[in-house]
Design brief:
Elements (H helix, E strand, L loop, with lengths): L8 H16 L7 E7 L9 H4 L1 H4 L2 H4 L2 E7 L3 H9 L5 E5 L1 H8 L4 E6 L6 E6 L14 E4 L5 H12 L9 E4 L4 H8 L5 E5 H11 L3 E3 L4 H4 L5 E6 H6 L1 H20 L1 H11 L10 H15 L4 H5 L8 H13 L18 H4 L4 H10 L2
Parallel strand pairs: 1-2, 1-3, 6-7, 6-8
Antiparallel strand pairs: 3-10, 4-10, 5-8, 5-9
Length: 362
Amino acid sequence: MLRMPSLSLATFGAALALAVALAANPAAAQNKKVKLAYGVTVVDSSTAPWLSAAKTGGFWQEEGLDVEVTGFNGAGPALQLLASGQVDVVFTGTPEMFHMRGEGVAIKAIANAYDKNHNYPVVAADSPITTIEGFKGKRIGVQTMTGSIVMWMDTFLGAHGLSKKDMGEIIPVGTGATAVHALTTNQIDVLIEWHGHYALLESQFGLKFRKFDNEPALTSAAFVQDFFAREETIKNDPKMLTGVLRGVAKGILLARTNPAAAARGHFEQFPSTRPTNVPLEEAVKKAGEVIAENVELSEESSKAQRWGYVEPAKIDRLRDLLADSGVIHKKLAWTEYYTPQFIDEVNKFDPAVVVAKAKSMK
């Protein structure tokens, strides 16, 4: 007779406790760790639809994923981490990816996050600057010199016959309070960042801007902010990537339906982004207003249940724009930059179920 090895009482007890825990929470046995990098250091509440609402609603957990979101200083550093395998997915701007693909780096966009370009310059509402040509000789503030914002700056300046050399100075000012300080103390004349951040600065700091958000060189480009993965991961772990993206698609719908719940969940996940010396409910209300405005960037594709898709012609248009502006020096086929293979599965869920859950949340 085969004799089974005996277990000590302590070992048996530990095994029994683990079995009970897994029975009570079977997802804990299969949740896969995923590292998601954002190309901005601070994961502020304006990003909730894409970076925290999926966890707030339990959507990533339903996919068997434990997603950790971390901010990094610029698209370049974030995508370099992706290329070296230190993170699994990146959420950031596309121009740096075009540049890296031209150098043979094996990364690719797996979902187009926004339906329109969210990058554009602003000046203070009372500034004497009224045209892009008026930027000549002025001090320009950007989040970081390693981000996609600098490439967008090169693009729209080039469209007006200007370049960085024509500016008085290019100054990295970060985001949030440091950007506000630079603008309000006249350290910079122009701020070049993005729609969600401007909404945050208007809501939390009371700033008023003159926005250059109808610049054709920018509005014609709609392939601007994406989720990226390594080609190796696309081939070997499509289930994980589909789960990450489907969670985001549901999170966008949650944020559209109940921005306050998305704000509350964001502060729980990223407590350092909650404004100091402000009551929680007031902070949630203001952040909810910013989220409600910013989620409009994905509204059209979300309503059509085609979130993540972009027409190839729009990719080609941006590639040509970046090349004409001297941002990239090698033009590849659109399939080298983006794969639409995940889109059908990512949007395969019942919106009514997500909406009902969102409405039930505080």
